[in-house]
Amino acid sequence: MFSSNPPLGLYIHLPWCVKKCPYCDFNSHEAEVIPEQAYVDALLQDLEQDLPLIWGRRIESIFIGGGTPSLFSGEAIEKLFSGLRALLNFAPAIEITMESNPGSADAKNYRDYFDAGVNRLSIGIQSFDDKQLATLGRVHNRDQGLRAVELARQAGFRNINLDLMYGLPGQTCAEAVDDLQLAISLSVQHISHYQLTIEPNTLFHHDPPAALPDDDLAWEQQIECQSLLSQQGYQQYEISAYCRDHLRSEHNLNYWQFGDYIGIGAGAHGKITLGGENRVIRRVRKRQPNAYLKQSGAARISSETDLQQQDLIFEFMLNALRLSDGFESSLFYANTGISLNYLQPALEQAIDKGLISFTGPRITPTALGFRYLNDLQAMFLTSSKAKKKPFFESSREIMHN
Questions:
Q1: 8-253 adopts what CATH topology?
Q2: What's residue 32's pLDDT?
Q3: How far is Cα 134 from Cα 136, in angstroms, rounded to an integer?
Q4: Which of 68, 84, 86, 223 has its CA 20 to 30 A from that of 184?
Q5: From residue 54, how far is each of 255, 261, 298, 301, 326 by CA, in Å?
């Protein structure tokens, strides 16, 4: 039984983009004309529909993702936030993040976003190398990337994230480090630094780019870049997230700690704890924007499921093990309603293999565990279905913390 509900965030999906990138497996769709007003109305209708699930709870963070949210006008975002404030209770220091593509960076829109309440901008740079940007199918170049950061600061943003990739086609270790060095020179507060991966249902999956770095080269790039980030004062708090001045992404941190979130918009996912009913539900909305807009109310929901015990265990560990500091053992019970003893088989295996450290109340992936994170996470998919004898002497205390 849940003793309390976890923190609550709001995810807003704006699904349109100028051009679909060949590596992208997100729910994004090319469009020349965006039905802004109809879509904002639909978003607020989604939210009204979900309000009974979250009565009395406040929103700690908001993330506007896509697609390319910065294709929306400042007026549309202002209308959206007027509606959100009328329906929701915002935390006093709420973090509100919006994604932006440098190819659609606009000084007036940036100012309007900031005035509407957006206080964190996440800019999808991916690379400062024009040749790599062309290979990745991006609609911006190096100079536009640099300009986007300048425009964000001029608009008032003081909390800026840059998305940057490594492991790019034909990329040397020196080139990956140079790319990152330029990002660091911009003195942004947060850098999301991650390896290009080839995902199913992408153009790259059907037609892979030539000369992708092998595992050894990609690992060398990762190690060199991590060292540079550390030297320059960026703390790694998640497998691909680095921040200065403790300015972590609070919204993403809530995901990684298995908090709750409402999801509104085409293809958006939500996960809500109904503590009084001892349930956790996942709600998913229709993916295709046109089909989504043609529907209303419950017809926009493509699925709603109760997460089962094995789902809760695996999803919690899938996310929490991404954090460099791991998690307090009491958080597992607090956010799943399940005794930590259910993790016994997988934890014993991971500790024996040197992938996890369990010191005091904290469970933390080791450096080896971080390197082989996929293997570590998979242990909790295969070992979470059967309860055995108590593994922790303080299990009663853990359950009631």
A1: TIM Barrel (3.20.20)
A2: 87
A3: 5
A4: 68
A5: 17, 10, 17, 17, 28
